[in-house]
Amino acid sequence: MSASALVRAEGIAFGYPLPGGKRRPVLRGVDLAVRRGEVLGVLGPNGSGKTTLLRLITGVLRPDAGSVTFAGVPVGEWPRSRLARRVAVLPQHLELPAGFRVAELVEMGRTPHARRWFGSTADDERAVLRALVEADAMDLAGRTADELSGGERQRVLVAMALAQEPELLLLDEPTLHLDLAHQVSLLATLHRLREQRDLTVVAVLHDLNLAAAFAPRVVVLHEGRVAVDGAPDAVLAPALISRVFGVATAEAWTAEGQRHLALADVTASGVRTEATTQQA
Amino acid sequence: MAPRLRTPATLLAALLLSACTAAVEASASPTATHVPSEVATPSVQPSPEPAYPRSLTDDAGREVTLAADPQRIVSLAPSNTEIVCALGACDQIVGVNDFRDGLPDDVLAALEDVPDVATFTGVDREAVVAAEPDLVLAAGNELTPSADIEALAELGLPVLVLYPETLDEIYADIRLVGEALDETEAAEALVAAITADVAEVRDRVSDLPAPRTFYEVGLFEGEIYTAGEDSFLASLIELAGGEPITGDALTTAISAEELVVADPEIILLGDAAYDPTITPESVGARPGWEGLTAVREGRVFPMPDDLLITRPGPRIAQGLEALARAIHPEAFE
Amino acid sequence: MRAAATTPALVGRLPNGPTLTRAALVLGVGLGVLLAVLLLAVAAGSVGVGPGDTAAILGRRLLALPIPETWAPATETIIFELRLPRVLTAMLVGGALAMAGAAFQAVFRNPLADPYIIGTAAGASLGAVIGIVLPVLLPALALGAGTSLLGIGLVQVLAFAGGLGTVLLVYAVARSGGRVPVVTLLLTGYAVSSVLAAAVALLMFSSGRALAAVFSWLMGSLADASWPELAFAAPLVAASLALLVVRWRGLNLLLLGDAAAGNLGLDVEREKLVLTMLATLATSAAVAVSGTIGFVGLVVPHLLRLAIGPDHRLLLPASLLFGAALLALADLGARLIGGVPVGVVTALIGAPFFLWLLRRSRAAAPVLSA
Question: What is the DSSP code string of B261-304?
């Protein structure tokens, strides 16, 4: 963990309030540093606090204990609009308001940079265009939000986030509603952007193999703590998966030497088995 | 008396008053030095009148200045119309309320071509202004909505609000209108005639025992409306030799239970004048009413002259007589 | 490389280019309609005045043109003192309600929100009814005894204070832990409104002869419009609407939901408070001079959203123009029918539309979100 980490979380604990003044603990002391230009995959079972961690990084939530800094300054001290110029979020679920054309939605991503009362500047227009192109959403620019398919919506959301021209892009399950081809294309886009824009990417993912193929570094959250942190090949071992997810897996190797995790037979529980080894 | 009042103090008072009613006087001469306090009192002498401009105090306590003898009068209430016509100024009326029921035939004929400028729901301000009146006679207690009165006054129209609540106030209002129209002698003569008629009725019934009398003004949404406590109608019933059973002073409503407790000996149906379904028989059939003394003894009477009784105009003595005849028919045999 | 190839062809499709001409078109049409309605509404009434005289009187009084007076003084009074303030008040109120409605619909992300939704109407009604009934109960306050201050009546002042105060109260009650959840806000507004409505009903029983005035106020009427009242409401409405228009970005972002708006740099809770208060200020000032006129604030933003899209940059000013024109027309109808409260006319138009809207939002996607 270098001192020049873009995001640094130290000992953060957080719980959601329950009726009666108590809190349901979600994170119990997480340490995490993300370097500039890094691509980090965040894994963990449902309820392990992945989304909460993202919200703490954006300052939407305040930690009960510990601290989160962005660029060396505690997130809580960042004015919202200034932080939004540097951090963009691709949420798990976003209802796009009906009636807006895609170009107008992407222009909303420029809000933190807005300098004019009514119009937009040449910089704004350039950024919107670039975002549309880079998110492969140019052909959607004139459509309205209500006519988009799931994959198209996701491209629009990426374009909105890119229009923010962030240094840090946080993604919450970006592949959740996408078919295989779109999952692969989205992650490829992110990699390209990381290089083109020197972007730092933190993505919450649910598919272990996809995460392993996408991120050079993954952290696995378990019971409110970081269970492992490191290169996927090193940390995504069957013993860990079994402990964290409670699922038996087997390692498999492709002809190219890539490692995959395959579910052990689950027909005993009545579920039909599919090949879970996915091509990354 | 008048010369003595022209002291610096009264001038100051008059100036203050005129400042308060600046809008009213917009079209009038600014020298409103006439002192109004004597005008509204019933004891106006028919002595030589000071020339116009003339300041008057109306029943709402407002100071109104007339620049000249009014030639174009808008009357927003039938009672006002009757007063103006009784003073011989019917031909000066240029706008009236559209409710013309119960006006005397000669008045109806005189007003045939006069436009309606007010309805039950309110005053058509544009129509009033278009009639170009130099005097507007309104009614008080929201019969003419106070918003309309204020608005017309703001436009510089002299608006006199008349709202008599007793016989004496009817006399005072007749004198006030007489003063406004420079018809003080006619007003005195009219008041004298009414006073004499009222005295005659009173003399016939004053020594007779006063039966408990309930006057039904109307039924609405299950509420029974009658003479309010201390109201004009209550005082008329008293004058006519009855003991009025009254409702709430503000709403004039009375509950059926209170009515049963009060147990009227005479029931007079004012609303029967407008609603043919209200008859002594239908009233007797109302739940709880069959035990009332008036119903049992058959002393429930429709009052076709309701308008004369409830309209505070120059024919109030006729209304009083109609009441007295219903309560004490024996006194008029 | 791809960017270089596609950029030139796309410039025309980006929001800024076409939107400018579209905005100019929409607002130009709105302004033209508004002017036409102004002339029509001032020329028509229970007393006939020719359009030539109407235009000449307006030109003489408003633009100080040297036009000779060929009409009766009464005609000038009718046009300038009675109709013009009434028509302008109708426009002010209609514009304020429509724009506030557009804002509330975005803040609550609820297509059925109107400017009265969190208690403005109930609070203003209670204030106004107190102002109407008080002089009946305490005759010392009655007509001519100083009820008006600078031409503004007790009714207007109390209605304004009631509307604004109620929303502040509702907001304070609904607030917990620095946040004001929309559902809590709506429910609190509903509950507080119910209490205040009961108080209004109670007062109506003691209003006596003033009941007609109370009823007319509750239905919404412009019959008492006057220059002083207009001078009271216009600056409040103008200031709050101007401050609302420049916050169009916030309104657009709120349509994305609180989380997304926050991620785009919006201080969501603060923005909602500011927007709610600005819209409430405009609504309260409008209601103070007109009574609670319904449906304009609900219907106009909706029709416009269907016609010109949901971007508040255009939707807010367009709501102002078309709301103003619509209410002036509705009031003309009310005047010509003969003294009917204008709220009756807007309800007659608005209620069927409301039903259609309900059916439509059940059948298709909700109007505000895809």
Answer: HH--SEEEEGGGGT-TT--HHHHHTSTTTTTSHHHHTT-EEE-T
